[in-house]
Amino acid sequence: MYSSAADLYDLLHTGNKDYKDYAAEAASLSAVIRRVHPGAQALLDVACGTAEHARLLAQEHGFRVDGVDINPTFVRIARAKLPHGSVVEADMTSFELPGRYDVILCLFSSIGYARTLENVQRTLARFRAHLAEGGLVLVEPWFTPGALEPGRVFVKTVEAPGVTVCRMSCSEIEGRLSRLHFEYLIGRAGRIERASEIHELGLFTTEEMLDCFRQARLEATYEPKGPYGRGLFLARAAA
Fold first, then answer.
1. DSSP 171-221
2. C-beta of residue 194 within 8 angstroms of C-beta of residue 174
3. Distance (Å, rounded) from C-alpha 200 to C-alpha 173?
4. b/e per residue, 5-29, with b = 16+ CB within 10 A?
5. Which residues of the chain have pLDDT under 70?
């Protein structure tokens, strides 16, 4: 998970629309929701991160949005962005909230952080338990086995008043686990800091994911493109 660089997440991800266009993705998601579940109002964004999707879905598209994330720094940032919503610090495999939602989202491949199919099923079971009657679940998957090129190096550099960040990353594959190594150089006021993170995400086939939905009593379909090009699962409660 993001630890050393959590406060820099928005700077790295919202400063370049060629890399991550949150406004376009939120509009795409809203269109899907309005098409599939026209009466939807209450949304829950699970693994919401800094709540940029959630903020836009609330402010620009008129939904009532709450959030869940395991990272306390993300929760702090998300609460500031969602003053009319509730953001809870919790694990997506075991969260328990009092409300039920018309739509439950899990975006930007966050489901990969479940790491195992057992945990994916547990997570989807929590979604099912928090789904209102007729509700919709939208899950953006991580890469499938064989789709992620190990060893490839990526570099991203961003600047803002008072800070410059350079992030270099590479990946390795161990069985069904992808391991992403991030190295940061953070320049502030005449000093340069260094930070490192390792992220582990499970690699699951589309059929394995669909089976996890079935095990959680959700009927799912899969759209290969999705809002960010990694696909999108759409699911409703099974009869």
1. EEEETTEEEEEEEEEEEETTEEEEEEEEEEEE---HHHHHHHHHHTTEEEE
2. no
3. 10
4. bbebbbebbbeeeeeeebeebbbbb
5. 1, 4, 15-18
What strand order describes the sheet that includes 232-237?
Answer: 87-89, 64-69, 42-46, 101-106, 131-139, 232-237, 218-223
Q: What are phi and psi of 31, to 5 degrees?
A: -65, -40
* Alpha-carbon dihedral 95, 100, 104, 110, rounded to 10 degrees: -10
Spatial separation of the C-alpha atoms in residues 182 and 165, rounded to whole Å: 12
Identify the CA nearest to 24 among candidates 225, 236, 164. Answer: 225
Helix intervals (H) in the chain: 9-14, 22-36, 52-59, 72-81, 117-129, 206-215
CA distance 109 to 127: 16
Radius of gyration of the chain (CA): 18
Q: Give residue 188's pLDDT.
A: 92
Residue 229 DSSP one-character state:
S
Task: Find the farthest-apart pair of alpha carbons in the chain and give their distance in angstroms, rounded.
Answer: 61
CA distance 109 to 96: 22
Backbone torsions φ then ψ of 119, nearest 5 degrees: -75, -30
CB 105 within 8 A of CB 138: yes
Q: What is the pLDDT of residues 116-131, one digit of tens each?
A: 999 999 999 999 999 9
